[in-house]
Amino acid sequence: MWKVLICDSDLSFSEELKRKSLAIAEEGVQGVKLFRGKADLEQYVSAHPDEANMVFLEVELEGGFGIEAGKKVLQMQPDSQLIFISAKDTYYQEVYEVDHVYLLKKPFEDECLKQAVRRAEKKLDQATRREFVIANKQGVQKVPLERILYFEKEKRRIHVHTTEGVVTYYGKFEEMDPQVDRRFLRCHNSYVVNITRVQSMNAKKFLFEDGREIPISKSYYAEIKSAYMNYLNGDF
Predict the structure, then answer these.
(1) For domain 131-232, which architecture applies?
(2) Residue 236: what pLDDT?
(3) Class of domain 2-128
C-alpha cells in the first residue's frame, strides 16, 4: 500500500486529480494528501522516509521550483515515483534531469493520466518487493531494502542494522550483490552503507540522524564522495 501525494498551486485541479487517480488506482492506494507548496511537501516526505509514494508535482510550482522539489523527494524517498504536471513548455528540458515516470500536460486527457498511474504502479510494485533475505538459526526472514541502514562485518558474521533493530547471520559481503542495489556502497572493509539513509558525510565518516558514525576508508573515499554527491544532486 502506498500514498498519492499531489502538489499543485491550483486546489481545484488537485481535487480533480485526486478523484481521477483514485478511480484508476483503486485498492492500491492507502490515502491521498494534497499540498499547495514546496515546503509543505518536503516537510511531509522528510517525516515519512520509509514510504514509497506516487507523487504528482507541478513543474511551475513557485516559479519553477517543482523540479527542485522532485529532486528533494527522491533524496528522501528513493522509491517514490514522480509524475510531473505542466501547463507550459518552458521547463521540458529541465524535467529530464530528474528521474520520473511521466509528464502530464495540462489540461490532461484521462487516457494519459491512466498511463501515468499504471507506470507508477508498476515501479512501486517492483520497489516494494525489493527485499534482503536473511537465513540464520532463528529461521528465514525478509527485510525491505529501504529499512536497512548499513551492514557491519564482524569476522564471519554480518550484522544488518535496520530501522527496527539488528539481525545477524553468517556470510560475506561479496555474496550480498544479487540482493542489494546501487544505494548500498562499501565504504570500509567492515561496512556497507545505504547512502540514502545517512544524514551527512565528511572525509572520515558517515553520520546518521541518531548520532551513529560509520568510518570511511581512504581507499574508498573518492568513489564514495562522488556517489554521494551524485545522490544529493539528484543524479544518482
Answers:
(1) Beta Barrel (2.40)
(2) 57
(3) alpha beta
